[in-house]
Amino acid sequence: MISYQSNLNNINQDMLEGFFVGWKKPISKKNHFQILQNSQYKVLAIDNETQKVIGFINALSDKTHFAFIPMLEVLPEYQNQGIGTKLMEILLNELKPITNIDLTCDQPLQSFYKRFKMLESHGMVIRKYLN
Ligand SMILES: CC(C)(COP(=O)(O)OP(=O)(O)OC[C@H]1O[C@@H](n2cnc3c(N)ncnc32)[C@H](O)[C@@H]1OP(=O)(O)O)[C@@H](O)C(=O)NCCC(=O)NCCS
Question: Is the pTM here over 0.70, yes or no?
Fold first, then answer.
């Protein structure tokens, strides 16, 4: 069974394995745990049988007007089972009072995010790993 939680209770960095698939420089488990600690909002999906985190989403926010969702990822072997959708739904419910919710994604993923009533937008970014 998969359970969902919006905190890091009973979670340690060793439960965060296998994420950042295809990244040039994958984030270490230590840094991943730190990122989740420092994010005002996070939702984790946990496989109760293995006690591993199998999906996560996080958000940074001024808690009034803006929230930004930097990352959403479900481990490859757990994808296409509705887990990413559930993580988004739980997070968006927690972000209900916030007026603007932004994220960046590759174009093919826009159809996934449109199901949460997100609108296409334009943006600018800095990516230091490209240098
Ligand atoms: C995107 C992601 C989080 C979706 O999680 P998931 O648990 O597989 O999603 P769900 O099972 O809830 O929904 C699956 C739907 O998402 C779509 N989807 C998943 N990845 C997609 C992609 N890269 N491009 C387009 N659509 C995608 C599937 O086609 C499927 O559509 P369908 O319901 O019409 O068949 C997951 O594929 C993932 O972790 N991908 C790698 C990391 C990533 O790209 N994260 C997003 C960063 S912006």
Answer: yes
